[in-house]
Design a protein that fits this description.
InterPro entries: Ester_Hydrolysis_Enzymes (IPR051532), SGNH_hydro (IPR013830), SGNH_hydro_sf (IPR036514). Pfam families: Lipase_GDSL_2 (PF13472). This is SGNH hydrolase-type esterase domain-containing protein. It is built from 11 helices and 9 strands. By secondary structure, it is an alpha/beta fold. It has a domain of 210 residues: Rossmann fold, CATH 3.40.50.1110. A 5-stranded parallel sheet has the order 3-1-4-7-8, with helices on both faces. Strands 2-9 form a two-stranded antiparallel sheet. Helix 1 crosses helix 11, helix 3 packs across helix 10 and helix 7 packs parallel to helix 8.
Length: 304
């Protein structure tokens, strides 16, 4: 329950601190993000900021298409098994049932704990057999995740995010083997997404193996805001092919990220098992993103 309490804390702060209008009565796209710390917006320095999910919500909001946005089902450290467990809870089912658009980031926390990153020496290593078992578990869990979502929601568009290479600071000769494991992870996610009728969003080509500016902390795998923007634009490419990307200038409108300790201080006292009441929202037929040229600006709503 401690994790759940901290997650609610993060969600409450990001939603209430945002300039993004969240009118639960407005018709439009109801967007739910689930998964790990990339979906939640963890920074390279143990803070919570704007994720690619917030930027996607911003893009939808700026074109008047967004009804609501929640990343209440995203939490730093979530593995595919933990995402599956979360989806089996009533609170999660209620959110997923009402969603028109769902994005998922899950799988890296199944694999990355098996990779040793010596950021001082610039070396990484892993054990092949445990990694193979972990990847097999990712496949099995994704099959169950998609089934769990479709049990309660047959119509939502599901987009599953791929992963980038998170060790650009290690020595060049160290990269190929681990990059191969990340490529296998992405392939498994893509295969199961295709089988389930979901969409896979590749991001690895945008980052490459040397994205030091986007992953600035050698001891941490999380991206800077520019990296999250690349992930959001990878989604835009898949969601609305040929549409102009979210401009980099939007990053100057985002507030500074907030440390975990400050988030804890801002959380109002409440019972850990208290369920928030959700107001129903009306739905109209969805449309794709049409323009980033107009609309209001907004602030932001493991891997590991």
């Amino acid at each position: 329950m401690k994790k759940r309490f901290f997650f609610v804390l993060i969600t409450v702060f990001l939603i209430t601190a945002s300039l993004l209008p969240m009118n639960t009565e407005a018709a439009g796209i109801r967007y739910v993000a689930l998964g790990d710390s990339l979906a939640a917006g963890q920074t390279p320095h143990k803070e919570i900021g704007a994720s690619y999910t917030d930027l996607i919500a911003l893009a939808l909001q700026r074109t008047g298409q967004l009804s609501s946005f929640s990343k209440q089902l995203a939490f730093p450290g979530y593995s595919t098994g933990q995402v599956l467990e979360r989806l089996e809870e009533k609170e999660a089912k209620d959110l997923v049932r009402k969603a028109d658009l769902i994005t998922i980031s899950a799988g890296a926390n199944d694999l990355l704990p098996l990779i040793k990153n010596d950021s001082i020496r610039g070396m990484i290593s892993y054990q092949a057999i445990p990694a193979a078992f972990a990847l097999n578990g990712v496949r099995k869990n994704y099959i169950k995740i998609f089934k769990e979502i479709r049990k309660v929601n047959e119509h939502a568009d599901i987009y599953v995010m791929g992963y980038y290479f998170p060790y650009p600071h290690v020595k060049e000769e160290q990269k190929a083997s681990v990059a191969g494991q990340l490529a296998l992870l992405n392939k498994i996610i893509e295969q199961e997404a295709n089988r389930a009728g979901a969409h896979f969003v590749p991001v690895s080509n945008r980052f490459g193996k040397n994205a030091r500016a986007w992953i600035p902390n050698p001891a941490d795998v999380h991206p800077a805001p520019r990296g999250y923007l690349e992930m959001a634009n990878s989604f835009i490419e898949e969601y609305t092919p040929g549409h102009p990307p979210i401009p980099e200038s939007i990053l100057s409108q985002l507030p500074a990220p907030v440390s975990f300790s400050k988030l804890k201080k801002r959380q109002p006292h409440q019972p850990e098992n208290k369920e928030e009441k959700k107001e129903p929202s009306k739905k109209k037929e969805k449309s794709k993103i049409t323009s980033f040229d107009s609309g209001k600006s907004c602030k932001r709503g493991e891997y590991t």
